[in-house]
Automatic annotation (TrEMBL):
SMART domains: PbH1
Protein name: Polygalacturonase
Origin organism lineage: Eukaryota, Viridiplantae, Streptophyta, Embryophyta, Tracheophyta
Keywords carried by this UniProt record: Glycosidase, Hydrolase, Membrane, Transmembrane, Transmembrane helix
Gene Ontology molecular function, alphabetical: polygalacturonase activity
Family classification: Belongs to the glycosyl hydrolase 28 family.
Length: 495
């Protein structure tokens, strides 16, 4: 514990604009101790400078971090206080666990903050606690151990009934939390790196016996804030809030290779309520964002929808899948989602709703506004035959409802097929609205606004001209022509 206090004290003292006294524990409040510590700091620094001027600058920067760490909680710890070593080789699981245990004891007094300094902090999965802030300094990288032996197994998610990729248990997440309240993960753009490469390779080679784990997964929790950090190379989905309420994800960078990184979705709000995702940059190997709420009969039984979700001001690239998806697991229902001010580039699809018979549930009250697509194969997609099931005991008569979906101010360049709404006789797409759309095409082809079993309307003129399934209204909202072909089918998947 003495070591703890020393390093924390040292750092505080070296910070500009800081009042060390507030931080200095009673053992060290004597002037003698302070002067001694300053002398040690001074001598060590001078020694390093003498060893090598260039190296000296590097070390100098480490001892005096460029930016002061803001304080979110009454008490702050440094990972090094608990024996953490940021050399990229030492395993720091115990340091994280001890630190979090210390914070757990402070819950009633406003909680605690764990500062992760610059360095490479290798660790196995660990659990967060309530009323905690995990702060990643500039240059701090938490590295996930890529040997699955270190990853604890957990029961399948109740709304999936299944480990998603394999039956039975699944690997937990690198950073995990259950039944928590008031958790902040933030920083000066420090990184949580899942070192997914080994996982993706083993997955492709079918060497894994259990489903891969996400990078960060918070379950059954409320008041979660994730901001100002980078999440990189997750083994599986990157950030997975599950059955949570009041989740804010702001100014986060999410990165994974755009090819060869299977299932590395960016953010998957799953059976979550009151979610705000804003000002993020996402470039990953699967969906940028995928809103979900459970799978087939398991999701129907669990019955927890995703609702009241606002997604805005994002830049997304998804070469393999879509910028923003809803589904395909949506059996608990998804409603009241707004997606606005997005720039989606170099992507296979821009925004997609995907579902299938057997899912049940609903997708309703979805608003897309001010989206810009650049170099996207298919812009707007609704797909109702995404026939991927947990097992054979799903109920094919459990058909999802898709309704009240609007697309306003949609622009784009270099898009092959701007719209593809593929309803079916069983799963109609109802009350779809298009307004103010102009999308530049990569090539002239017949099927550029594809529809099947869709009911809805176009207000004003849009480009490209809409399919004949939709009713036409003028800008003032007067009906011009009612469709007599809502069930007409013009879908060309061969694009
Ligand atoms: C944590 O401790 C290390 C080593 O003592 C120090 O270099 C670093 O500046 C400290 N960082 C914070 C955020 O307290
Ligand atoms: C985290 O907590 C969950 C639930 O209590 C538990 O199943 C899991 O093993 C814990 N993970 C670690 C790494 O301790
Ligand atoms: C976003 O985070 C970075 C560091 O990660 C910070 O420099 C920047 O000011 C933040 N922007 C906003 C708008 O919060
Ligand atoms: C944060 O770091 C990532 C990866 O290092 C970088 O791509 C991104 O631009 C940084 N974000 C900010 C706001 O500096
Ligand atoms: C998977 O199971 C097989 C057979 O039980 C076993 O030989 C192998 O070591 C397991 N692999 C992993 C990664 O657990
Ligand atoms: C939601 O969580 C944030 C912390 O992320 C908190 O400041 C806010 O008060 C919470 N809102 C509600 C309505 O509880
Ligand atoms: C993110 O960084 C910006 C700029 O440094 C800062 O204004 C904001 O408060 C930070 N957000 C959080 C939640 O730390
Ligand atoms: C829909 O979600 C927004 C948050 O995006 C929320 O402010 C609003 O109250 C919700 N509307 C309803 C009817 O619940
Ligand atoms: C993007 O995906 C396509 C297949 O859809 C692939 O041919 C292409 O090489 C990918 N682009 C990159 C840069 O990986
Ligand atoms: C539309 O979204 C873009 C980002 O793609 C943003 O720059 C622009 O300000 C938004 N326009 C409005 C009116 O909000
Ligand atoms: C159709 O959807 C719009 C939102 O896009 C909604 O305002 C309207 O009430 C819906 N109409 C019906 C009949 O449900
Ligand atoms: C489409 O609907 C019309 C009546 O509105 C019906 O006569 C026709 O058989 C339907 N076609 C298909 C393919 O279901």
């Amino acid at each position: 514990m003495v070591e703890t206090v020393t390093s924390s004290f040292w750092w505080r003292w070296t910070q500009p604009h800081h009042h060390p006294r507030r931080w200095v524990p009673s053992v060290f409040t004597t002037h003698k101790a302070i002067i001694t510590a300053v002398w040690i700091a001074f001598l060590v620094t001078v020694f390093w400078w003498q060893v090598d001027a260039t190296a000296g600058i590097l070390i100098f920067r480490r001892v005096f971090p460029a930016r002061e760490v803001p304080k979110f909680r009454p008490v702050a710890f440094n990972l090094t206080d608990f024996g953490g070593v940021g050399d990229g080789v030492t395993v720091n699981t115990e340091a994280f666990e001890k630190a979090i245990l210390a914070i757990a004891k402070l819950g009633k007094k406003g909680g605690g903050q764990l500062n992760v300094p610059p360095g490479y902090w290798l660790t196995a999965p660990f659990n967060l606690t309530s009323h905690m802030t995990l702060f990643l300094a500039e240059g701090a990288v938490i590295l996930g151990i890529d040997d699955e032996k270190y990853w604890p197994l957990m029961p399948p998610l109740p709304s999936y009934g299944y480990g998603r990729e394999h039956r039975g248990p699944r690997y937990g997440s690198l950073i995990h939390g259950q039944k928590l309240k008031d958790v902040i993960i933030t920083g000066h753009n420090g990184t949580i790196n899942g070192q997914g490469q080994a996982w993706w390779k083993k997955f492709r080679q079918k060497l894994l016996n259990h489903s891969r784990g996400p990078l960060v997964q918070i379950m059954w929790s409320t008041d979660i804030l994730i901001s100002n950090i980078t999440l990189q190379d997750s083994p599986f989905w990157t950030l997975h809030p599950y059955d949570c309420k009041n989740v804010t994800i702001r100014n986060v960078t999410i990165l994974a290779p755009i090819a060869g990184a299977p299932n590395t979705d960016g953010i998957d709000p799953d059976s979550c309520e009151d979610v705000l995702i804003e000002n993020c940059y996402i470039s990953v190997g699967d969906d940028g964002i995928a809103i979900k709420s459970g799978w087939d009969q398991y999701g129907i039984a669990y019955g927890r929808p995703s609702k009241n979700i606002l997604i805005r001001n994002l830049v997304i690239r998804s070469n393999v899948s879509a910028g923003v998806s809803i589904g395909s697991e949506m059996s608990g229902g998804v409603s009241n989602v707004t997606v606005e001010n997005l720039f989606i580039w170099n992507s296979r699809r821009a925004v997609r709703i995907k579902t299938a018979p057997g899912r049940g549930g609903y997708v309703r009250d979805i608003t897309y506004k001010n989206l810009t697509f650049e170099n996207v194969r298919v812009g707007i997609v609704i797909k109702t035959d995404y026939n991927e099931h947990a097992d054979e005991s799903f109920d094919p008569k459990a058909v999802p409802l898709l309704e009240n979906i609007s697309y306003t101010t949609i622009h784009g360049e270099g898009v092959r097929v701007p719209v593809q709404i593929h309803g079916s006789k069983e799963i109609w797409v109802r009350n779809v609205t298009f307004r103010d759309m102009s999308i530049g095409l990569t090539y002239k082809k017949k099927h550029i606004f594809q529809c099947a079993y869709v009911q809805g309307r176009v207000i004003g003129t849009i480009f490209p001209a809409p399919c004949k399934n939709l009713d036409l209204y003028d800008e003032q909202g007067h009906l011009i022509r009612r469709s007599d072909a809502q069930n007409a089918t013009d879908i060309d998947y061969d694009i």
